[in-house]
Amino acid sequence: MATNKKEFAFHVREVLLSLYPDTHTFLNFNTDWQLLFATILSAQATDKSVNEATDILFKKFPKLEDYTKENKNEILFCIKKVGLGKSKCEYLIKSAKILLEKYGGKLPKKREELMTLPGCGFKTSGVVLAELYDYPYIPVDTHVYRVSHRLGLVSDRYDANATELQLEKLYQNNGLCIQLHRAFILLGRNICLAQRPKCDICPFVKDCPYHKKQK
After folding, report:
1. Contact yes or no for 89/79 (Cβ under 8 A)
2. Range list of β-strands (E), the chain
3. Residue 2: predicted pLDDT
4. Which of 57, 47, 46 is nearest to 79 (CA)?
5. CA–CA separation, 202 vs 115, rounded Å?
6. Which helix (H) or strand (E) covers residue 119, if one does?
7. Where are the alpha helices (DSSP H) in 20-159?
8. CA separation for the pair 171, 176 (Å, rounded)
9. How many angstroms from the chain centroid is the CA of residue 117?
10. What tens-digit pLDDT sequence spans the chain (215 residues)?
11. What is the set of active-site residues?
12. What residue spans in the chain does CATH classification 1.10.1670.10 cover?
């Protein structure tokens, strides 16, 4: 049993990476800008619905230059199942224009620059940079947020962005940040569910503050 927060955090990391080894990004893509677009589309949508949409979208529009106002209706048709289609369609078209005109069709590798693209916020930029270039980020979605807070790794007073920074501080110099991000997600999807978590099969149940409160 862990005796302090840092020991427990290390224990969580080791168990998660053992439980979910050799993970890969949940979104399908072939180029850097495709990962960006897929991640933008994933806001408030399932990975399954995004992958189904991008399978059609990227085949029909395989080049960044294809994302124009002239193709707006066809792009919107391809992504209609992911929700918030009109806004996301605008994000893709505007981002493509900026990438082509300002960055020569390449993704900027500075987080602040990446976040200037429409639809690319703190989490999205973290996912893209960590997945593509192994930046030491632990992007926080609903699953990462729920698991890290229930385990007491991060204080309840922190929002999603602050939670990422706290997790990165906690796991600094440990590496494998993006793998840990994916493992947090898989634990949240499979065991630490939002409703009716499967505490009986959770490897952290003995040390989990959330579970102790439920007794």
Report:
1. yes
2. none
3. 55
4. 57
5. 36
6. none
7. 32-41, 47-60, 72-79, 85-103, 111-114, 122-133, 142-150
8. 9
9. 17
10. 556 888 899 999 999 999 999 899 999 999 999 999 999 999 999 999 999 999 999 999 999 999 999 999 999 999 998 989 999 999 999 999 999 999 999 999 999 999 999 999 999 999 999 999 999 999 999 999 999 999 999 988 899 999 999 999 999 866 689 999 999 999 999 999 999 999 999 999 999 999 988 76
11. 123, 141
12. 5-23+137-214
Start-end ranges of CATH 1.10.340.30 in the chain? Answer: 32-119
Q: What letter does residue 134 receive in the DSSP assignment? A: -
CATH topology of domain 5-23+137-214: Endonuclease Iii, domain 2 (1.10.1670)
Whether 2 contacts 165, CB under 8 Å: no
Other residues' Cβ atoms within 10 Å of the Cβ of residue 59: 9
Reading the block at residue 201, the tokens are 């099969």
- Domain topology for 32-119: Endonuclease III; domain 1 (1.10.340)
Distances (CA, A) of 133 to 63, 74, 110: 21, 31, 11
Report the C-alpha gap between 113 and 117 in whole angstroms.
8
